[in-house]
Design a protein that fits this description.
It is a single chain. By secondary structure, the chain is of the alpha/beta class. The chain has twelve helices and eleven strands. The protein has helices spanning 5-18, 44-61, 81-87, 119-129, 133-142, 181-188, 201-207, 217-222, 249-252, 257-291, 301-323, 329-341; strands at residues 31-36, 65-70, 92-96, 144-151, 156-159, 174-177, 192-195, 212-215, 231-233, 242-248, 295-297. It is globular.
């Protein structure tokens, strides 16, 4: 069956209404999927997204689908997942859009700061806008069919020295950054960004090379740096990181329509599931950190407003840079922000 946008939209929009209904498939429909993941089995991307999706689809279609699963970057590391699926190394993978901004710049919109209050809100809003041609065309051009998306809860300010509760409090701080738009966000807040690889965060914070990092609680826990920290914000929105589980269009064209529908349905279920995992584990970690003696705090409403108004500069810069490339960035931003406003946090 040839992939077209109508097929994807129908599957994605109808999924939430059909999750409770049994899916009937032709007994002869047999599909083998080679699925890649750049993350190990215990990472939330794999255990919270990819593995549950495979289990859910298997539950729905039984022996109509089988898997060859290669997690942990066995066949392709995170930064090469898109090209690996495009070249046929695998049929599907959770594509980290932050590493594919050259080919899908608009679909990195979820990573901008000041947008979204929870994983639930970000995942649900993006699931809606992804189906609009302004976003879907990038997938089509890349030869990808998006099935489901996952996003971390908004990144927070996590410090080794003290809580920063005002916009002015960021002045003079040295903050670890992963690069890109995060650098500009930190600069606009009045702090100085220092790019540090994820694996070196602990050493940088331990040595005092940086005063803080911009990250999710899940990442902080994964890298073991919580023991070095004294304070962490809870209601900030300093950026994000998203992954979009995609099947190559080449493979999609070989999959019978009923199984395509089941994949979209399982994808919708996965979005709700992984949002629960992300936000739930984030809340549990906040309690854990408080028990460790870390101050978990909220920015006062008036200060949060000033911070988010300042971070609009990152969004403006993003729009200007992409407009210079002939990309409909303002249209994409307007659509996403309006959709977020209509999506419960």
């Amino acid at each position: 069956m040839t992939y077209n946008r109508r097929t994807v939209l129908k599957g994605g929009l109808a999924a939430s209404a059909t999750l409770a209904a049994p899916t009937i498939l032709r007994a002869a429909s047999a599909v083998e999927l080679t699925i890649l993941s750049g993350s190990p089995d215990k990472h939330v991307i794999s255990r919270g997204g990819v593995a549950p999706f495979m289990d859910k689809l298997k539950e729905m279609v039984g022996d109509a689908v089988s898997y060859n699963y290669y997690p942990g970057g066995q066949l392709a590391p995170l930064k090469q997942l898109l090209s690996a699926v495009q070249s046929g190394v695998g049929d599907a993978a959770p594509i980290p859009v932050g590493y594919s901004s050259d080919k899908m710049p608009l679909n990195g919109i979820t990573m901008l700061p000041g947008l979204g209050e929870s994983a639930h809100q970000i995942i649900a809003a993006y699931a809606k806008v992804m189906q609009d041609p302004v976003f879907m065309n990038e997938y089509k051009e890349a030869g990808m069919v998006p099935i489901w998306n996952m996003a971390f809860p908004p990144y927070q300010y996590v410090a080794t020295d003290e809580a920063v509760k005002t916009l002015e409090g960021f002045e003079g701080k040295v903050v670890r950054s992963a690069g890109g738009s995060t650098n500009l966000a930190i600069q606009l807040l009045g702090a100085s960004p220092t790019e540090v690889a994820a694996g070196d965060i602990y050493v940088a914070m331990e040595r005092g090379t940086v005063n803080a990092t911009i990250s999710s609680y899940l990442s902080i826990d994964g890298y073991g740096v919580a023991e070095l920290c004294k304070a962490a914000s809870r209601n900030g929105s300093f950026g994000n990181f998203s992954n979009i589980f995609c099947v190559s269009e080449r493979k999609w064209d070989t999959i019978p329509g009923d199984i395509q529908d089941a994949m979209m349905e399982a994808g919708k279920w996965t979005e709700a599931h992984v949002a629960d995992v992300m936000d739930g584990e984030g809340a549990e970690l906040a309690k854990k950190y408080e028990e460790m003696g870390i101050e978990i705090y909220d920015f006062p409403p008036e200060e949060l407003k000033k911070i988010n108004e300042t971070l609009v500069g990152v969004q403006t810069d993003w729009v200007d840079r992409l407009k210079s490339r002939g990309v409909k960035a303002q249209e994409a931003l307007d659509l996403y922000t309006s959709t977020l406003a209509d999506t419960p946090a």
